Amino acid sequence: MHYLNNVLGIKDPIHKQKIALKAMDVVLFGPPKDYSHHMKDLVLVTLLLGALIGCWYAYRQNKNSRRHLRRMMKDMESLHKAELALDHLQKELERARLEQACVTSEKQNLERQLQQQGSDHMELHTSYSDLEVSQLKAEIEMLRAELQRAEGELQDRCWSPPVGLQQWLQLTHEIENKAYIKKKNGAEKQLQQAREACEKLRKKRSSLVGAFVSTHGKSIDDVDRSIVEARTSLNEVTQELQERVHRWKQIELLCGFNIINNSGLQYLESVLYRGTANGRGTMRGRMSSSQDDLDDETSSLYSPSAGKSNSADDDSQDTFDF
Description:
STIM1/2, Stromal interaction molecule-like protein, Helix Hairpins, single chain, mainly alpha, SOAR_STIM1/2
């Protein structure tokens, strides 16, 4: 009581009794159990859910009504456009009917005029038609010529060399190279013989008797002629080499593959004459005969120098005998 009077400040005895009664009830029976709050919460939640569902339903109905309204407006606009298009088509149809009537009347008038003109106009029309036909034929021929020229150019652009052409050209190059090497060796041999003849002549002229004999003989002219011929043959070999290299390079550019750089003569012969034994022998015979002809030509080219060297040797021998 002292606590209630002094600390809490409760002076009324009725209030004190109520507080004491409540405290005794709590001590004896525990805290009071109130079921009314759960029911209130349940009712409140139910009402809140109902309100939310109602708002959502109203929103959906409003949205659907607006969508239906927009669709109806679009349908009305499309209907209005269709009506306008129908009116436009009806006007176009009326205009087309009027034009068709005008064309029909003009056609009838023209037919009537053509029937009245007679046979003179028929002959004139036939002459005009013949002239047009001749012009069309000339144009067709011109177009045909252009087409053939274009086809020829297309075939030239699309041309590709055959499969075995590269190896045959390489074989031809190697055969020419072999003949060139032989001709070059012959020219070098001719030059060497001319040098030897010149050296022999110089040795003969170093002695007094040899100088006297050589001035009256023909050895000097022969040696000079052999030197000139050897130099000419070397120049010919050089020019032939330049021409051959230029020609084969141009062939490589036109064909689009390597010809000068190849696997060698023996390999090419073994590949190209693999399945033809008789043909290979025949070709070898022809190649040997052509090679013999080249040898004969080479020997005929170099025979004057040999004769000159022999004559120089004879002169030197005569000088020594003298």
